[in-house]
Amino acid sequence: MITQRRSGVLLHITSLPSEHGIGNLGPEAYRFADFMQRSGLTYWQILPLNPVDQGSGYSPYSGLSAFAGNPLLISPELLVKDRLLRKEEAAVSTRFRADQVDFKKVVPAIRAWLDLAFTRFARSKSKRLRQAYEQFCMYEADWLDDFADFTAFRQHFGGKSWEKWPSEIRDRDVLAMDELKTKVRKGIDQTKFEQFIFFRQWNTLKVYCQKKGVKFLGDIPFYVGYDSADVWAHQEIFKLKKSKLPKTVAGVPPDYFSETGQLWGMPIFNWKELQKKNYHWWMHRVSHNLAMFDLVRLDHFRAFSAFWEVNASEKTAINGKWKKGPADKFFRRLKKKHRKLPIIAEDLGDIDQPVHDLMSEFGLPGMKVLHFAFGPGMPKSGYIPHHHVPNTIVYTGTHDNNTSRGWFKRLRVTDQNNVSSYLQQPVTEQNAAYLLSCLAMQSVGKLCVIPMQDFLNLGEEAIMNRPSTPSGNWGWRMKPDAITTPLARQIKKMNQLYDRLPEPIVLKKTPRKSAKKKAKATDS
Q1: pLDDT computed for residue 186 by the predictor
Q2: Are 499 and 439 in contact (CB under 8 A)?
Q3: Closest among 472, 482, 476, 450 to 463, alpha carbons compared
């Protein structure tokens, strides 16, 4: 777990600059890692990396797989290096917005050069690349095979949700599936190829970041999308009707974000069945993410204690009920598998004592978001810095919040006055993001994470997600000229001032053989 004072930045991969219309795992990701090192930032927090689609509004929290990577993040520049694309094939032929992802334009453009790359790979005589691919397919088969089948079948059936497929495929009849696989073999192979490339590029970036002293903080959504490989392949661990549609769906009761609650629509887990199987699917999921990231945030952590279950026929989340989650049984099992749990509990929202007890029992740090600290009960707020504890991750805001500049602008005058009183100086729309970032840095919490939008002092045009709003989310992008030397110096100064600067990286030199030994080795 985090034992020293450190800082991080929240920036999803899609938000990186790129001439291809969406951030990816290519040159700009490496450039951002360099910027983080110069700034003294240790943790790079990102959103889930799972595949997304139009049906879920491209939300990374409702992906097509809990294990697969998002092919939209594959870098064409790195495919050119692997000789799977030519430079002219990777060149941009469409103009994209620099500040937003236009998924309608981006997706077909990326699909076109992924098709080209796969065709070239299929014809390639490179034994090195082919061997690496085959090893990947073998090692990841327990999730990859199902995902590749699901993707190819879904395409074969015109993009229909899996419960609308022919019953024998929907219900996973082995003979029927084998017959269909022969018809869609190319689609299956291409999906496996894309996953191989994604994880190849991801692992290369991770190694580079490690050398720079940059660690990744990943994010595991609690639920999975209904139309996903996981629900289709593991129907018994979800609450489904005979028709395979969900009996009940996930959400949260009325809260800070919505008067009618949030109706997410994902199917509810069948925890009794999962317990019979020693939570195998979940253990695999967590282990998979711990292998990818240095630290992992469990989104909607309170659902492990109790979750809000809503009848699938409801139009809002108001009429749901609290149901008991797996609680300590789950984490005891996880503790057997992983002695150390580098996990952050997302404990925002309606939190009761059993949630705090669960976090305390397993030593899991929670989150403190400063945007929630300055209401009428400010002095006693659990989010206000004088009530923070060291085992805490402090944020100005998260991907579900307004930017700090936009947040302050929309505050009631009384709450704006609370902010100024607490900071003992006039706070304005222009300086709110900087001062709030400094306040987060000052906290006794071992780790503070600042959204990149706040470092850049951006307004609400840079909001990443508006909860309960079904469209227009997940698109914000950082402009190419945003990360500058003066900004890196400013952030580094903050890290120095508040004792969050990491120790300098000392690269170990490989001892050289003496000249005599070299000569002797040559003679022999």
Answers
A1: 97
A2: no
A3: 476
Give the Å distances, CA to CA, from 110 to 196, 236, 343, 489. 16, 35, 33, 36
Distance separating alpha carbons of residues 446 and 342, to the nearest angstrom? 14
**So which residues are the catalytic ones?**
299, 346, 400
Query: Which among 287, 361, 297 is positioned nearest to 331, based on CA atoms?
Result: 361
CB 321 within 8 A of CB 308: yes
Whole-angstrom distance, CA of residue 13 vs CA of residue 45: 10
- Write out pLDDT tens, residues 304-329: 999 999 999 999 999 999 999 999 99
**DSSP conformation letters of 52-75:** --GGGTT-TTS-S-SS---GGG--
Angle CA 139–299–439, to nearest 5: 125
Question: Which pLDDT score is estimated for 520?
Answer: 47
Q: What is the 8-class DSSP label of residue 113?
A: H
Residue 507 has a pLDDT of 62
pTM, 2 dp = 0.94
Q: What's the DSSP call for residue 372?
A: G
CA angle 23, 189, 112 (to 5 degrees): 40
* Regions of the chain with pLDDT less than 70: 1, 257, 507-524
C-beta of residue 306 within 8 angstroms of C-beta of residue 325: yes
